Amino acid sequence: MKRNLFLSLFLVNTIAVLAQNKDQQFFKEIYNSTLTNSKCYSWLDHLSNDVGARLSGSTGAQKAVEYTKKQMETLGFDKVYLQEVMVPHWVRGEKETAYIQDNKTKIKVPICALGGSIATPQNDLAAQVIEVHSFNELKSLGADKIKGKIVFYNRPMNNAEIDAFDAYSGAVDQRYAGAQEASNLGAVGTIVRSMNLKLDDYPHAGGQSYGDISKDKYIPTAAISTNGAELLSKTLKTNPNLKFYFKQSCQTLPDALSYNVVGEIKGTEHPENIMVVGGHLDSWDLADGSHDDGAGVVQSMEVMNVFKNLNYKPKNTLRVVLFMNEENGLRGGNKYEELAKANNEKHIFALESDEGGFTPRGFSLECDDANFDKISKWKPLFEPYLIHSFTKGHSGSDIGPLTSPEIVKVGLKPDSQRYFDYHHAANDKFEAINKRELELGAATMTALIYMIDQNDID
Predict the structure, then answer these.
(1) Rounded CA separation 311/283 (Å)
(2) pLDDT grade for 12, boundaries at 50, 70 and 90
(3) Which pLDDT band holds residue 1 (cuts at 50, 70, 90)?
(4) Which of 96, 326, 366, 439 does the annotation list as catalytic?
(5) Mean pLDDT of 181-201
(6) Which of 87, 215, 256, 268 has the fewest Cβ atoms within 10 angstroms?
(7) How many CB atoms lie within 10 A of CB 148?
(8) Is 181 a catalytic residue?
(9) What pLDDT is stored for residue 11 in this prediction?
(10) Distance between CA 441 and CA 431 in Å, rounded?
(11) How many CB atoms lie within 10 A of CB 340?
(12) CB crowding 393-409: b at 16 or more within 10 Å, else e
C-alpha cells in the first residue's frame, strides 16, 4: 500500500517536473523567436510613419484597417475578416491658439481641444479665469462666481503614486466631466491641465463628455500643457482679473462606418473555446499613437507570428482583434461583445495591451480567486524574464465589455513611469518606441497565451 502510494506520488511529481521543463523550454523559444525574428517593430514603423494618426472616422483610421488586415492575411490565420462598426467622427480643424492677457501683455500658451468639444463662439473666446482643483471646490464657489468665466482645472497627477496609472485615475475626472460640471454653473469654457506627470509644453488630448446636459449648454473645452498650467496659475496669483483667450474650430460630424479587424485560427482540440488578444487601432490625431496603441496592435499580431514561426497550433481558438474607437467611444469593444453574444460564443480568455510599448513588468487580472491563484503559480516561469507583478485589477477597456461567464481578462502591465510623457500628445511618435522593449512585451503576451492554451482556466 505504502509502496503504491510512493509510486503514485513519484509519478505525479515526475510529470509535473517534465511539464515545467517543457514550458521553460518553450518560453525560451518564444522569447528567442520574438527577439530575433519578429515583425512587430517594422509593422509599427509603417503604421506610425506611413499611415499616421488614426482618429475614428478619419482617412488614417481606414488606412490602418486596410494595412493591418493585409498583414494579418500573411500570418496563416484560418480567416481574417472585418466587423462593421459605426464610430464617432470628431475633427479638430485648424490648430488651436491661446494666450494669457495679463494687463497689456499677451503670453502664448499651448492648448489642444479635447475630443468631442465644440468650437469656440465665432471661433474665439475671451473671459476671466477661475482656478479650481476639484469639483467640490467648483461647486462651493457657486454660480455667482463661475457664471461668465472660464474654469481652469489645475489638479496635477499625484507624483506620490508609484503606478502612474493610479496617478492618472486620480486626475482624469476633471478632463472627462469638467465641461459638464462647469457649464451647470454658467461657465463659458474650461481649460484643463494636461494628464502628464512631466512639466513640458505638450498639451495632451483625450475624450470628454457633456453628459446629459442639453446641447445649448455645451461649452468649449481644451487641455493646456503642464508648463502652461503652471504659468497660468502663477500669473493668476499676481493678477486674479486676467483674461484667457482661446480659439478652436473643432466639430462633430455624422457617425462614420469603420471596422474591427479580426484574425482567427481554429483550435485543434477545443475550437468552441475562444482566446482573444488585442489592442485598439484608433489613436488621437495629434501624433501617430505609437505607444497608444500602435504598440498593442502590433504586439497582438506578433503573437500569431511567433506561433507560426514555432509551428505551434493552439488547442483553443485564437483571435487577434484590433478594436476601433477605444479613444472616444469604445464602439469597437461594444460591437465585438454584441456579435459574440448574438453568435453564442464562449470566450475563456482575453488579453489586451494598451499601456504602451515599454518594458513589460507583469499582468493585471480580472478573474476569480481560483484562476488568479492558478495563473500566479506560473510566476516562476516568467521571473527569468523579469516579469514579476501578478495583481488583480483593470485589464483593458476594449475587452471590458466581454461578459462570458467563465472568462479571465488580463492586461499587460509595462513599466508605467514614462507612459504619460507621451499619452495623447504630439510626441507619441515612432521614435519614442524602443524596439527591444516592444518585442519583450509581445513575447510576454505570447507566453501567457501559451500557458492558458495548455492549461485552460478553472
Answers:
(1) 33
(2) very low
(3) low
(4) 326
(5) 98
(6) 215
(7) 11
(8) no
(9) 45
(10) 17
(11) 18
(12) ebbbbbbbbbebeebbb
Beta strands 189-193 and 221-224 are parallel
Rounded Cα gap, residues 126 and 241, in angstroms: 12
Going by C-beta distance under 8 Å and a sequence separation of 6 or more, which residues neighbour residue 339?
Answer: 83
Grid coordinates 481558438 are at which residue?
317
The one-letter amino acid code at 337 reads E
pLDDT above 60: residue 230: yes
**pLDDT exceeds cutoff 50 at 97:** yes
> Could you give the domains of the chain?
28-90+254-455 (3.40.630.10), 93-249 (3.50.30.30)
Q: What type of residue sits at position 456? A: D
Contact present, 49 and 285 (Cβ < 8 Å): no
CB neighbour class for 273 (10 Å; exposed up to 12, middle 13-18, buried from 19): buried
Residue 444 above 90 pLDDT? Answer: yes
Identify whether the C-beta of residue 293 lies closer than 8 Å to the C-beta of residue 354: yes
**Residue 266 contacts by C-beta under 8 Å, 6 or more apart in sequence?**
78, 317
* Residue 16: C-alpha distances to residues 9, 19, 180 (Å): 11, 5, 58
What are the pLDDT digits (tens) for 266-310?
999 999 999 999 999 999 999 999 999 999 999 999 999 999 999
Do the beta carbons of residue 279 and residue 293 sit within 8 Å? yes
For 380, residues 6+ apart whose C-beta sits below 8 A from its C-beta are none
Residues 6+ apart with CB under 8 A from 395: 350, 351, 352, 364, 365, 366, 409, 410, 411
| Whole-number pLDDT of residue 34 | 98
Task: Report the sign of the C-alpha dihedral through residues 99, 287, 398, 159, in that order.
Answer: negative
Residues in the chain: 458
Whole-number Å distance between alpha carbons of 229 and 244: 12
Write down the pLDDT at residue 4. Answer: 62
Give the dihedral sign, CA 281/284/285/288: negative
In angstroms, the Cα distances linking 131 to 98, 208, 233, 407 are 17, 19, 7, 45
Sign of CA pseudo-dihedral 291, 293, 298, 303: positive
Q: Band of the pLDDT at 104, cuts 50, 70, 90?
A: confident
> What is the residue whose three cell numbers read 505525479?
12
Q: Under the phi-then-psi rule, with left for phi > 0, alpha for psi from -120 to 50, and beta for the rest, what region is 131?
A: beta
CB distance 282 to 326 below 8 Å: yes
* pLDDT bucket at 457, cuts 50 / 70 / 90: confident
* φ/ψ (deg, to 5) at 13: -65, -40
